[in-house]
Amino acid sequence: MYKSELLAQNLRQMIENEVWKPHEKLPSLREQTQLSGLSLITVLNAYQTLEAQGLVYAKNKSGFYVAERSRQKPSYNAEVSLKKAVQINSAVFHYLKSIQAEDILPFGSAFPNPELLYNQKFMQLLAQHAKRKNSYLNSDSMPPGNLALRKIIANRYILQGMPCTYDDIVITSGALEALNLSLQALTHPGDYIILQQSVFYGAWQAAERLGLQVITIPDHPQHGFDLSAFEQALKQYPIKVCWLMLNCQNPMGFTVNDHIKERIADLLHEYQVYLIEDDVYAELHFDQHKPLPMTYFDRHQRVLHCSSFSKTLGMGTRIGWVHAGQFSDAIQHLQLMSTLSASPLIQNALVDYLSHHHYEKHLRHLRRQLEKLKKKYCQFLKQNLPAMCEFDYHPSGYFLWIRLPEQCDSFKIYEELLSFKIGIAPSLLFRPEHGTQNFLRLNCSYPWNDAIEHAMDQLCCCIENSIQSMPKPSSPSG
Amino acid sequence: MYKSELLAQNLRQMIENEVWKPHEKLPSLREQTQLSGLSLITVLNAYQTLEAQGLVYAKNKSGFYVAERSRQKPSYNAEVSLKKAVQINSAVFHYLKSIQAEDILPFGSAFPNPELLYNQKFMQLLAQHAKRKNSYLNSDSMPPGNLALRKIIANRYILQGMPCTYDDIVITSGALEALNLSLQALTHPGDYIILQQSVFYGAWQAAERLGLQVITIPDHPQHGFDLSAFEQALKQYPIKVCWLMLNCQNPMGFTVNDHIKERIADLLHEYQVYLIEDDVYAELHFDQHKPLPMTYFDRHQRVLHCSSFSKTLGMGTRIGWVHAGQFSDAIQHLQLMSTLSASPLIQNALVDYLSHHHYEKHLRHLRRQLEKLKKKYCQFLKQNLPAMCEFDYHPSGYFLWIRLPEQCDSFKIYEELLSFKIGIAPSLLFRPEHGTQNFLRLNCSYPWNDAIEHAMDQLCCCIENSIQSMPKPSSPSG
């Protein structure tokens, strides 16, 4: 990083911390040169950077002054988009209600086919524990949750090469609570956070609820995550927290490579930013190795890692956790005020289940089934989707993210398919601030049969119709 | 209500709704007289009431103008106390951690002795359901929760004489989530809410978390609830929501009579205020009839009624609900963003359990046991507490609220008893804004035995010591 950039960054930090209040004068160029030992041109560059960002303003011959808070918000930039006072309409709510109906084919669902989950051994253990009074101890019904379960989860981090103790872990009602409590613990209303452009809608909703300013990082066509846009956003905005999904990303499906993850960890430290990592699909990799979480690359306690058993044992378990580290107390405090705890019974049954290698066996089986199903769906769609549509095969999870021609509106296709009792997830849910909505997410965890094939035919047909009705490009003039 | 008061109230509503913005002129006295048909003196009275409340200001000969928002906050009043920007310190958190330890006698616990709960029949049914995959349906894992359970809960309202349909009910993770989501749905940061002076600490914490202004209603020594202070607070402050507990109140134990409840319902309507009713102990009455919730007296959909199975079947069930009426959608929306749902397994087991009259039988047995225990504790304490201490026997629940002489600090007694491995709940937790802290709450749901008797002796002894060390009053002069 250039010296002037470093200086600009330090000054920005001080402005944010109100070392100087709005309309107060910054040190003069001469003072700053003397204090810092930097050259005049370096100092001037730094001041001009701040000016370009709207953080300071210059008065003729008198020097630089701190801008009003409201004026400190920088202008629109092509690569990162600022979404003030995020307003998610009720589209998500109505979508979730609509695909919930029992007779709707669940290609729009965020959850794997429940038939693949709810492992029988787990249910047996749950039944055994249900009859014992000491499965319901009050102490397990208080944050941070069951001690034995926290030890097992901590051990799973250790086995993947990360330092962790049970004190780092807080058990939650699913990963959604873990993510929400983490965001709440780390932010105040008005703070800036980073989200990916296409992202689990829960992140947008949490940002809305907490009154946060959202900066989005564009999706990178090759790597999934656009590192340079990320760095630029950190440079340009007073970011407090990033909420990212880098493994088996929802909705797109990619897993970011380790090189990028390493660089993200460096940037978090450099810009003193926290990362809330949503990692609920990490166990659903088809390759031999589980993708590494950001915690692995984090040397400076900048990462809060959130996950759950919802995508592997079933959403009905309602057990998630956060590897919260130093923020464990703050998160427990918030939990004590809101839901108190996850089910002590299910926590106890999980302890038993996880202690006896049942889980690893179940995961191996689950991965094989998901891989087989995903390949089947891909094969069919490769043959039957209109030629102008594209999707990538990622060796993990159970989502396909299908790109339609730009003029197609996947929300219209969603609405049309709903009348045929077929659910899909239109891109509006995942990138509400984006202009074009030509993507859709398909859940391919349901076993292939005639009804599914018929529905997939219908899907392809609907897309074909949508393409046909696209405005024809006029012939080139001249 | 006087005509001028009614007019003042209407004008206040319009100021709140920003019909007129700060520094905008209100209709002149003459205009208002003509428009309303009221006498000049009535209109003038109304304007002067608003002026006294800081809502408007008068400009010499020019009329009345809307005050700045920040100036609209009225001054301190002896009977209702305003608690701005509520700051609950971590006392509650550390208290809960301290009494959680397994070797601490749980007289400080908010929960009944778990041995009396976790009914065997319920656990059997839970075990049966645990083995069935369709106990974990995704549709039960989404707001508003299991349909059959909502129907049963709705029916329990109907049987108590209240209109209710399953659409009114949202299932939550315990009553705490129901209360929190209700408060969140009904308020914005900065809004005014009413709490009782001595109240479940979760209410203070929720207010803090949501950035609300709290007005407290003093405890009434006879009726529990001070109706005239309540009315005065409604008159004086722009109250949006009340969060009240009127049946088997925690921590004090009283149940408000029906006459007062009726009047509260009238006032809610008159002042256009919503009530969030915390009614988690309602089933633990020893008399024949269950106390009526405010929903019974509510003709204008002003009440959101929250309860749970935590105090009757065990906190480990983590199932509560809110009779949310018109706010059902708003609350579901918030739940979808935070915890998604309560455990579908436990919801399904509850449906089975509640459908077969097991619950009523369990409740009858539970009430008898609690009554017997409470009487035993009362008998002992009547004989052994120092003469300067007082408490009331209320025929419900399992709390005793003991009043010490004013100079005693129950937090010190709590700390001292903790060194003897005895937990109690000091009044600081329930009335953090109050100057004197000479009350303590005692959980008397644990079976009497030598260890308990010894601990009660220790308690009495600690209190006696505290009284002995009180500063002696100087002898009257002259």
Automatic annotation (TrEMBL), chains A, B:
The cross-references to InterPro entries, in alphabetical order and at most eight, read: Aminotransferase_I/II_large, HTH_trans_reg/aminotransferase, PyrdxlP-dep_Trfase, PyrdxlP-dep_Trfase_major, PyrdxlP-dep_Trfase_small, Tscrpt_reg_HTH_GntR, WH-like_DNA-bd_sf, WH_DNA-bd_sf
Please name the SUPFAM superfamilies in this protein's record.
PLP-dependent transferases, Winged helix' DNA-binding domain
Please report the stretch or stretches of sequence annotated as the HTH gntR-type domain: 1-69
**Leader peptide range in chain numbering:** none
Database matches in Pfam families = Aminotran_1_2, GntR
Say which family it is in.
In the C-terminal section; belongs to the class-I pyridoxal-phosphate-dependent aminotransferase family.
Name of this protein = Transcriptional regulator
What species is this protein from? Acinetobacter pragensis
